[in-house]
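hey can u run this one w/ zinc ion bound, need the structure tokens asap thx
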Amino acid sequence: MSISDIKAALLTAIRDFEIIDCHEHLGPEEERTSEPVDVLNLFGHYTRTDLITAGMSEADFQRLHDHNYPLEFRWRLLQRYLPEIRFGSYARAGFIAARELYGFDDINDDTYEALSAAMQERNQPGVYRWILREKCKIRCCFTQGGNDYGDRDLLLAVMRVLHVHHVHTWEAIQNNAASWGAKVHTLEDYLEAFEQAVVAGKQRGVVGLKIHANPYTDPDYPEAVAGWEGLRAGRIERLPQWHPLHTYVLDRMLEMAARHDLIVATHSGLWGDFRQLEAVHMIPFFMRHPQTRFDLYHLSFPQMQEATIIGKNFANVWLNLCWTHIMSPTLTKEGMRLILDFVPVNKVFAFGGDYMSRAVDKVIGHLRMAQENLAEVLAERVHAGLMTEDQALEVARKWFWDNPKEAYRLEV
Ligand SMILES: [Zn+2]
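ok here u go:
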């Protein structure tokens, strides 16, 4: 059989899997249904980067989603730049959504109005379950879109905690404490109040904490305390970007995560100055906290080699391919080849859509791209005689289901 025949067979089987979506920014469904939707929803969120880079002004991008302007006007704004971005992988997810969810093979002058009407018609309570469960076969999503998700069977909350350790002013410290219903004086008060918030979160169904890979300082407890006391006494108005207080609080939070059996999702790579977001910054934390489980996001794009070697060397780190399939199928497939070469197959999560409510339609586009990418890379291995088709499907099942289920301690 040719590689493409094997890929087609694997893809058919993989598309039948029930899956766990390992990262979204979906808020409660009302966030989506309370706003009108149309074709422009398929060109918001990530596609913004491509539109702005292609030359669209920020003001025009904002107008795309401003329903005070008529649909036709907003479509014309998009249409000016659509030819420049339509072959990129961010846009492709939107085209797949138009086809698979609403039955439109293209998005153009002839279809944009009917597509918009079809999207609005579906924008009713139940739209999440229709897209995610029915169309995507997603059992549940780990999501970071607020605190109260309503549908706790479908949406499992990951608590964002970057602002807890990466704090620069006394006012920010007090605001954090107030959000947990506490007022704090000492550093120990602060950590204790946060730990109570974590315990309460876990009781509400929180499944993990979310931080970023950043260039933290080395641990220095006296300096950390000096920073805290300086803020408290008003001697220091604002801490520098990276201060030992941040490192100390993060270290303590990572101990709490282990104590309460919560995984720590860790963003790496991709955004803006991605040198500040490289996975390698976290190596000292991976080493200091062998009992803490880390879910390392995005393969630290474009540093896939470093990320995959981290996946090889640290028993407490899982590699999560969320966002990567729409960033670049080319880099993601190369990353998966590296992973198959040297990371145990029980340490990888295949998919996270990484979309907000407004763009929830595109989860299906992203998922289809992830399924294709994995089918292709596994087909190469089967074709080379390195595994059978059944073994390839076993790997895929682990990446889409078993591994996140195990690492996130799910009882699904
Ligand atoms: Zn994200």
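Residues 23, 25, 354 surround zinc ion (CB under 6 Å). anyway lmk if its weird
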